[in-house]
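[Meeting: bench + compute handoff]

Bench side (C.D.) handed over the final construct sequence. Compute side (W.E.) agreed to return the predicted structure before the next meeting so the bench team could plan truncations. Sequence as handed over:
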Amino acid sequence: RLLKEGENIVIDRTNADKAQRAPFIALAKRFGARVCVCVLDTERETCRTRLKGREVHEGKHLTASQKNSLLIGLGMMAKRWEAPGLEEGIDDIRVASTIDEVELLGSHYQGALRCKHTEEKT
């Protein structure tokens, strides 16, 4: 509904490979929306450490078993990982490797999120 009304949306999801990204890209293109991808390029060990320290996921407190499942999922995701490319129909790809770069990405897209996707963005 929001895309149909010309609003921008954010898909906060890993989308580790082309197949996972394809339906979201197709949906955006169907409504004339630009597709902007943010890649958080973090060392695998940093991800493991963060997952081990995570207490809540999707609003629910994690058990030890659930934390272990997240760690297994990280390994599976790393094996599937395909870097996004413009040939997929993506209009803009930004990569952040540090916290400062992540904050810069947030600043860059914050204004765009307030605009309708039918308006020209810089």
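W.E. noted at the follow-up: Residues 18-113 form one domain. C.D. will use this when planning the next construct.
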